[in-house]
Amino acid sequence: MNTYSVVVATYSENRLEDLKAAISSLKNQLLMPQEIIIVVDHNESLFQKTLTIFQDILIIQNRFEQGASGSRNTGILASSGTIVAFLDDDCIASAEWIVNIDQSFDDDKAAGIGGKIKPIWKIPKPPWFPEEFGWVLGITNKGTIEKVSQVRNVWSGNMAVRRGVALSVTGFNSVFSKIGNKPLPEDTDFCVRVLFRWPGHYWLFNPCAIVYHKIDPNRNKLSYFIKRCFIEGKGKAFMFNRAVLKNMEVEINYTIHILSKGLANGLKDTITKYDIFGLIRSGVIILGFFSVGLGFFSKYIKDYSRKIVNNFYQQIKEEKIKSR
Predict the structure, then answer these.
(1) Beta-bridge mates of residue 60
(2) End residue of a domain, out of 155, 188, 220
(3) Cβ-count burial 279-300 (b if 16+ within 10 Å, e if not)
(4) C-beta pairs of 247-253 under 8 Å, 24+ apart in sequence
């Protein structure tokens, strides 16, 4: 029988009310976790406040480098459950969250589970935003498969993993660590390394394991959208250059099957529903695609050029040594 430790990483007093809601949702699970662990990321004032507010919960400070990766790794090491689940501090778990996760772990080959992330809009959703780019806001994309499926990676805002599996890959990589609101693909890197370490195992996406993510109004801006896409491209290039990603099959399928359909649907909405924002959404899809591509190739070319230069100087150094 699995036991569950839920880790909630937090870093800012501005999210204290969100953190209270997240913890409340965990205390109202149909299948109660064995323990809830709050990890405070290098913020002494917030740490003291959480100690006062949550007196019945284990609260610890990030013992590693600042960032989400260090906080989650601290939680993994402090946990005692056979399964470690992660919930972001601005998310609310549905009452059946752990129940549905637990059902998916009946599959012995499942290294970890991820679930659907639905939005809670603090202000109305901007009409120009294409839901096919849900990942930009930390929510599940429109077009994501609606049944339990094997996937390459899931998102750390709604993730559960066998504790032994997480420890076997030394947890999340601090190189990709998200600090504050700066997004990096630390969850993709973690999931891919798990698959390398555990051949024959896989991640499962269970759409019934639902959490709700509160969307910061600052993310409802086109400037954030472009920046987030660019950073995602850079992150994927970094993993590709380090051979963490062997291929881009998932990204190619996403482009072919989800983005292309979203592009067509936007144009269709403009023609059949007289929705001018349909055309704009299609344009934003193209903008997002090229922003990701620009980020990817800028990082790929930069790293490749650096590698060539380093190899050149290394050859010169070796020739000098031989000529002595």
Answers:
(1) 39
(2) 220
(3) ebbbbbbebbbebbeebbeebb
(4) 250/152, 250/153
No. of H helices and E strands in the chain?
A: 10, 9
Same domain, yes or no, for 36 and 136? yes
The tally of CA atoms less than 13 A away on the side-chain side of residue 242 is: 14
CA-to-CA dists, residue 64 to 16, 74, 161, 188, angstroms:
22, 7, 20, 20
Tokens 């109305």 belong to 124
Q: What is the reported pLDDT for 117?
A: 98
Final residue in a domain of this structure, among 220, 249, 275: 220
One domain for residues 84 and 201: yes
Say yes or no: 108 and 21 in one domain.
yes
- Range of 301's domain? 228-324
The two structure tokens encoding residue 241? 């250059």
Overall domain count for the chain: 2
Cα–Cα distance measured from residue 121 to residue 126, given in angstroms and rounded to the nearest whole number: 10
pLDDT, tens only, 51-80: 999 999 999 999 999 999 999 999 999 999
39 and 71 Cβ atoms separated by less than 8 Å? yes
Place of tokens 């051949």: 199
CA nearest to 207, candidates 94, 87, 90, 88: 94
- 216 and 248 assigned to the same domain: no
As a dihedral over the C-alpha atoms of residue 35, residue 38, residue 39, residue 45, rounded to 10 degrees, the angle is -150
Same domain, 162 and 292: no
Query: Checking DSSP bridges between strand 110-121 and strand 91-93, what pairing results, if any?
Result: unpaired
Phi, psi of 54 (to 5 degrees): -110, 75
- Where helices occur in 215-275 by DSSP H, the ranges are 222-241, 249-253, 260-273
Across 28-42, average pLDDT: 98
Residues 162 and 283 in one domain: no
